[in-house]
Amino acid sequence: MFRTKAQSIRAKAKILFREYCSNSSVHGVRYLSSQEQPGCEKFWWLLVFLVSVGSCALLIQKTYRKWDQTPVIVSFDEKPTRIWQIPLPAVTVCPQTKTRPVWLNFSREHGENIDDKGYIRTDNFLAMVCERIFYHMFYSSYILPNKTGSESYANLIDNMSVPMNDIIDFCYFRSKFTDCKSLFRKTITEEGVCFTFNGLSAKQLLRTGASLPQEDHLMPETSDSIDWTLDQGYSPQSDLSSYPYRTVVSGYSSGLAMNLMSNDHNYDHLCGGPIQVLKVLLHSPVDYPQVSNKFIRVPINQEVTIAVKPQIIVTAESLKNYAPERRQCFFNHERYLKFFRVYTQDNCELECLTNFTLQYCGCVRFSMPRFNRTEVCESNMIECMIRAENELFERDAVERRKGDRNYRTGCNCLPSCTSVQYDAEITQNDFEWVRWVRALKVDVNESHGVYLSRLGIYYKEAQFIASKRSELFGLTDFLANCGGLLGLCMGVSLLSLVELVYFCSVRPFMVRRKERTPMDGKQLPAISFVSIAIGND
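Above: the chain's sequence. Below: its structure in C-alpha cell form.
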C-alpha cells in the first residue's frame, strides 16, 4: 500500500515537472522533458543548464559581497561649497616658553632641585611641560616624587605661564584691527597653556560632569555656538557675527593675521629646545586641541603665511539606514562619547587614549578630559603615561596584523560622517620687523632681546568642492544587477521565479483539489497520473 502511494506521488511529481518544463519561460528547460529528444541531448542540455545556474550563482555572490562590504563610494559633490558656509579653522598657538623667570628659571635651577637621593623638590619644577625628548635625556633615570602642595598641576602651569600679551599682539581680522583678547582664549593642552581662536567653549565641547575640574577649567568660556553645528552647518538665522567666525572673501586681507612675540628674558633653552619657535595648530572648532601630534612651527623673525584649503566630507541621507560599519562613519547621534558632546575621530582617539591611560596607569594626564573623581597622574607617573601611549599604538599595529582584536580597535573610532579638516600651504620669509617699526618712527633697541614673527591665515579660494559619501550599490542597484545576471545566464525574469513558486506550491494543490471535486454528485475518478505517466513512457 505504501509502495503504491509512493509511486503515485512520484508519478504526479513527474507530470508536474513535465508540465513546468513545457510551459516555463526559463531558457533550455523545455528540452529536459521533451519526449522527442534522445537521452544524450537531454544530458547535454542538463549540463549546459547546470553550468549556467552555477555561473549565475557565482556572479550573484560576488555582486552581493560588493553590495555588503563596499556599499559606499566617496566622490566629489555636485555643487561647489562657498567659504561662508563653513567656519574658519580654529587656531591654537602654543609658546615654547613654559614659565616666567619670576616663577621659575628652569635652566638655572636644573640640577639644583635634585637632592642626594635623586628627588626633584620644587612643585613648580614638577609641573613643567617640556619636550618629551628632554625627559628621556635628563630625567628618565630619576625617581620623581609627588608634589607637596595641594594646588593642581593645571593651576601651577597656569600661574607660571607667560601672559598672552607677551605672546600675541597686533591682531588683524576680517579687514580690521581687533583686540587679541576678544579673539583668543586660554586653553590648557598637553603642551601647557596655549591660546585658541574660534574654538567652542568648554560647556559645548565637554559633557556635564565629564569635564576638567573647575579649578582647571581653562577652555574658552564665552565662545558659544548658537547658530552652527557640525552636521547641519550654519542656520538660516545666522549672520556674519555668529560664532564660530567665518569669512565671505578669500585672500590674506580677509583672514586672520597677528604678530607673535618672543623675549629672551622669558625663553628657556633647556625646556623649550635650542630654537625659538611657536607651535600653531589648525583644527576644527569642535576638536579638542592636541598640539603635540601635529603642528606648524613659526620661527622668530619670520613671516609665515598659511593658505587654507578646506577638506570637507558629507554623507548622503540615503546612507543613514546603513549600519556604521558598512558606511564606515558615525553620525553624531550614533556614537556616544562620555567626555565630548560632539563626535569626531580626533575626540574619540583622545578619549580612547585617556581611558587606556587610566586602565594602564590608574590615573590620567592633567590635560586629559576626565571625571571629577578621576585621579590625576603625579610626576612619578610620567614614564607610565608615555609608555601607555606607545603601548596603545604598538598593540594596534601588531595585533591588527595578526587579525586579533585590541583595545584601540574596541574604541571603534571611525571617521565622523560630516568632517572638516584644513589643509595648509605654507610660505615663509624673513620678517624685517626692526626696519618696519623704525619706519613707523618708533625707537627700538635690538639688544633688549625681543623678537617678532608674523602669522597670517586665510582661505586660498572662495569656493571648493567637498567630498560626498553616497551609495555605490543600493538595494535597487543590487536587484537590478541580479536581474541582469539571471537574464543573461538563464533568461530568467521575476515572473519566471513566480512561475517556479506557482508550480511548487499552488499548482499541486489545485490539481489535488480538482481530483476531489464531485461531478454530478459523484466523486471524480482519480485521474490516472500513474497511467498517464506510464503511457508517456
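The chain has two domains: 2-70+473-536, 75-471.
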